[in-house]
Design goal:
67% strand; four-stranded antiparallel β-sheet; 0% helix
C-alpha cells in the first residue's frame, strides 16, 4: 500500500512479547497492531493480543530500520 513512497528494505532491530496470562493456542485471538512512529529510518510497532472474550493476554513491540533501495 505504500508503493507511492518508493521501495524500501527493512530489518528488525529488536522485538519482544510479554505474556500477561496463560494463552490457549488452540482458541481464537485477535491481534491489534499499530505503528506510532517512523522517523530517521527507524520504525516502531506495538501490538496487543486479546482472547476472543476481550481479555488482554499479551503485548508486543518491534523496532525496525528502513532504507530506500
Amino acid at each position: 500500500p505504500h508503493r507511492e513512497h518508493g521501495n524500501f528494505k527493512g530489518a528488525t532491530l529488536d522485538h519482544a512479547i510479554w505474556f500477561h496470562r496463560p494463552l490457549q493456542f488452540d482458541d481464537w485471538h485477535s491481534y491489534d497492531m499499530h505503528s506510532p512512529t517512523i522517523a530517521g529510518g527507524r520504525g516502531l510497532s506495538q501490538g496487543a493480543i486479546h482472547h476472543h472474550d476481550g481479555t488482554l493476554v499479551a503485548t508486543t513491540v518491534q523496532q525496525g530500520t528502513f532504507r530506500p533501495i
